[in-house]
Specification:
single chain, about 260 residues, alpha/beta, six-stranded parallel beta sheet, 8 helices, globular, binds adenosine-5'-triphosphate, binds the ligand Cc1cn([C@H]2C[C@H](O)[C@@H](COP(=O)(O)O)O2)c(=O)[nH]c1=O, nucleotide biosynthesis, EC 2.7.4.9, ATP-binding
Amino acid sequence: MGARRDPDPAEFRPPARRGGRAGGPGRTAGGGGAVTAGQGGFITLEGGEGTGKSTQARRLVDRIRGLGLDAVATREPGGSPRAELIRDALLSGAVKPLGPVAEAMMFAAARIDHLDVTIRPALARGAFVVCDRFADSTRVYQGALEGVDAGLLAGLERVAVGPTMPDLTLVLDLDVAIGLARARARRGAGAADRFEREADGFHEGLRRAFLENAEREPERCLVVDASGDADAIAETLWLIARARFPALRRPNPGARP
Ligand SMILES: Nc1ncnc2c1ncn2[C@@H]1O[C@H](COP(=O)(O)OP(=O)(O)OP(=O)(O)O)[C@@H](O)[C@H]1O
Ligand SMILES: Cc1cn([C@H]2C[C@H](O)[C@@H](COP(=O)(O)O)O2)c(=O)[nH]c1=O
């Protein structure tokens, strides 16, 4: 999957040099400060295969940029040149024989570089960062589904992520058969990646685990029904983001008075 629909690699160049349902109050920024007007924020999209994360991440970034604000689109695994190399190894299945603990460590290694090179510098300059998957995917894929010990994963998360947890995580929830069909259609003749190749039961487990994970952090994680059309979902996500981040409530400079 590494090559099939990569976003613009320019997004991943080092910057020049930071289960509730929809709604809810703001929280302390993962980047280290309170979410207030004039600051950016760290938003992640999570969910199973084909739930529309990449589509919605792009749309969210476009809307933020439409306000004249700095927004960085990124993804995991990947999001920096070195982390993209690790992505290729993980999604090819080359790391799978080493077992799920080794895979979890590789995801964490990629995350360390991604945070250092892309996410933290962007947050530090006041940008919004919209990331397609992040630490919740490790909790769900490597933890809930692959059985890696929760204490070990929590330690890895502490080391890799530290205080830079997302301010807002949008969990896209969709019937598994629909998501897999969408992912298949997108892939066309291309080969399924290491995780897409897993059995249907694995994907059902992912859906449940994402919902359970969101329930444990309802302030940060909002579950959104991803079965509607992409425009309607984008509108819902935008309303949630605007409710969470004061900076997104400014008027659109391109809009007619
Ligand atoms: N709301 C929607 N309705 C119908 N099709 C959609 C919708 N959202 C996205 N799609 C299409 O479904 C496919 C998968 O979407 P997308 O790549 O955004 O999902 P994803 O969650 O990022 O997938 P993955 O986790 O497998 O990478 C794409 O072809 C996309 O155009
Ligand atoms: C971050 C992260 C990802 N994964 C898995 C989930 C997906 O199957 C792939 C990424 O592919 P996508 O098309 O970009 O969604 O990697 C994981 O198992 N653990 C993680 O931490």
